[in-house]
Write a structure and sequence with these properties.
The chain is of the alpha/beta class and 389 residues long. The chain is built from eleven helices and 14 strands. It has an eight-stranded mixed beta sheet.
Length: 389
């Protein structure tokens, strides 16, 4: 059987997630992918990255040049912002798209992306790598043995980014183009208004920096495990209050809601700047046992997911431990994207799922704002959920 042509990739955004994760993983999948074009608002960084890649790699500062490149088959959008403008332009140009999260700040923007993907017939995949971790399938199987699921508890300890990637030698951004930088900032700011209107500044900061920056991964993980997402929240506490921007960093979040199967979801998200590494645990309590799923820190390729199960097996008590393979979730994600592009496989982390996540996070904001009396206006209601402080 003849080898399939390489998928020629253009990368938009060359910061941490590109240099520390995707570019090294694309290099390991050299029989599948070839990076042919890299783009960053710092052309100096783009050139430095290109110099370290095999072959002749084109560079640009403006993503519109990369999208127009006829030699690019797939665009990887790795910028820390809302991605609708790049995604829609790439789809309209006949390119496949792999977009890091968040795909979009607003539901309306996500729907425009979905329309563009449908019209183009091209693949778009959202970068929810946790959904592709090899341990997810084993976890889903074991969940069926726990009887009636009573509680799903998610705990996240989130340190500073610097703690997580101190082992990565990053090529810095040098003299970024101010006009291009401003264009990206303004686009995301407009999408934030589209999503949250005239909500209080603290609400917007929580949504953009914490919910879309981190908690969105927990929403995708709930979906991957088959739980679905809550349609309303019974209790949400955000400390400190949301009315103003918090100079000391993100707030603590505690949220309680009911899942579709009747189980109670408990989410506890904590900013721990002095803690040495990222920690994420999903503990499930069922009528016949319990399990703990520990997800790996995202920037450590040697770390693996871990699953511990305790339940009855006939008349015996079973204690089982499972470790994920050494293939990281990021690599599995890229392999899945290639199968979708080449073989028409159904996308697991699709736009529809991303819309579910955004809507759920907006419902969380409604509950938080209502409890604390903070001005909260979101797309899912278009009505104030709280009052001005």
């Amino acid at each position: 059987m003849a080898a399939q042509p390489l998928i020629r990739v253009g990368v938009v955004g060359l910061g941490l997630i590109a240099q520390g994760v995707h570019l090294p993983n694309l290099a390991t999948l050299r029989d599948t992918y070839q990076v042919v074009h890299v783009c960053d608002v710092s052309i100096a960084r783009a050139q430095a990255v290109a110099d370290g890649l095999p072959g002749q790699v084109r560079t640009s500062a403006d993503w519109t040049d990369l999208v127009a490149d006829p030699d690019v088959d797939a665009v990887f959008i790795l910028t820390p912002s809302s991605h609708g403008d790049v995604a829609i332009a790439a789809l309209n140009a006949g390119k496949h798209v792999m977009s890091e999260k968040p795909l979009a700040y607003s539901i309306a923007e996500s729907e425009r992306i979905e329309d563009a993907a449908r019209a183009s017939g091209r693949v778009i995949q959202v970068g929810y790598m946790k959904m592709y971790d090899p341990i997810i399938e084993r976890t889903r199987q074991e969940l069926h043995e726990l009887g009636q699921i009573r509680v799903v508890r998610i705990t996240v300890l989130h340190p500073t980014d610097e703690c997580q990637f101190e082992h990565i030698s990053l090529i810095p951004s040098v003299n970024p183009d101010p006009a291009l930088l401003d264009r990206g900032v303004r686009y995301s700011a407009d999408r934030l208004i589209e999503a949250l209107g005239d909500s209080a500044p603290g609400i917007k900061a929580l949504y953009e920096n914490v919910l879309l920056g981190s908690v969105v991964h927990q929403m995708a993980l709930l979906r991957a495990l088959g739980f679905g997402l809550p349609t309303e929240f019974d209790f949400v506490s955000v400390d400190p209050l949301l009315g103003d921007l918090n100079p000391d960093g993100p707030p603590r979040i505690l949220a309680v809601a009911k899942l579709a199967n009747g189980a109670q979801m408990q989410l506890c998200w904590n900013w721990v700047p002095d803690y040495p590494e990222y920690t994420e645990d999903v503990t499930v309590f069922g009528s016949a046992g319990r399990m703990q799923l520990a997800m790996p820190a995202p920037y450590l390729p040697a770390h693996r997911a871990f699953l511990r199960v305790e339940r009855l097996s006939g008349d015996e008590r079973l204690n089982a431990e499972y470790f994920s393979s050494h293939k990281t979730a990021f690599v599995a994600e890229l392999e899945a994207f290639a199968r979708c592009v080449r073989d028409g496989e159904t996308v697991v982390s699709d736009v529809a799922g991303s819309i579910e996540d955004v809507a759920c996070l907006q419902r969380l904001l409604i509950a938080a704002g209502a409890r604390e009396g903070v001005r909260t206006i979101v797309e899912v209601t278009n009505e104030p959920a709280g009052t001005s402080q």
